[in-house]
Amino acid sequence: MTEFGFANKMVEKMCRKKYDVIDIFSGGFAAVILNDKVGFIDTYGNEVTEIKYDDAGTTFANGFARVCINDKWGFIDVTGKEITEIKYDDVWNFENGFAKVLLNGKWGFVDTLGNEITEIKYDKVWNFENGYAVVRLNKKRGIVDINGNEVVETKYDDAYNFKNGFARVCINNKWGFVDTTGKKITEIKYDNVWDFKNGFALVYLNNKWGIVDINGNEVIEIKYDDAWDFENGFAQVKLNGKWGFIDTNGKEITEIKYDNVWDFVNGFAKVKLGNKYGFINTKGEEIIPIIFEKADDFEHEYATVTLKITVDETGKIKPFSKN
Q: N or C: where does the chain have the smaller number of CB atoms within 10 Å of the terminal CB?
């Protein structure tokens, strides 16, 4: 037996005689049409629902199918049981345990038992991710949890879902962060912010970049022309056209002097000065001189480098410099 068709040819032949239309099997079920009504059968030809619906989603998605009677929609499970009333103006497939439903121009959510976990009152809702969903009411956004509680009040002009425990929110074109209780961990003052990663987040103010920690402290002064997220305890920063590194305490472990830098790998970072490459360690020391034409990251305590040399007519290598 396969989910892509009938259990055997005899069942298939009988079903094709019985129904006007049989859709493609997906997830072990197929929608069928008989006398302009829709239902579902399994791979043995058993009717898992009555053939009574005016319309239906063509497949079960995450264990549930959308069904329609008299222009109203609801859900059935794989046993054919209607887990919700067939009363909504529109429904979307279940994602991460919840489905968006529309009634009288307003949106809300139902769970897999058919319970309305929120009031059906929002102008727009987004899918749940990691236990939270963004909602919009009266042109303002907030965030609800899986119990339907507005953990972030619907008062923000813009909001994004939680990533690593914090959400980006905006009022009057200024951005900041809130935690999963809705508490502001920063002032809503930045021109832009990025999601938290490894316990820190990039913030942008007056054309300069800095970094805040999970307590909202500006651990990296907002003075850099460009900055990257912390990786392995260090972040790349750019100032006046040159690059360097800072640690999580905001200390510049190198001069901001390089034309390019790369993340630390196995305790070493590749740096470029002019058209030459070398390596620094986590103390900012240039442990491999910046004299190489090409260099790859350290791997298993070694790095591959290419050095251009010049020889005279006798084959003697001429002295070389960092230039």
A: C
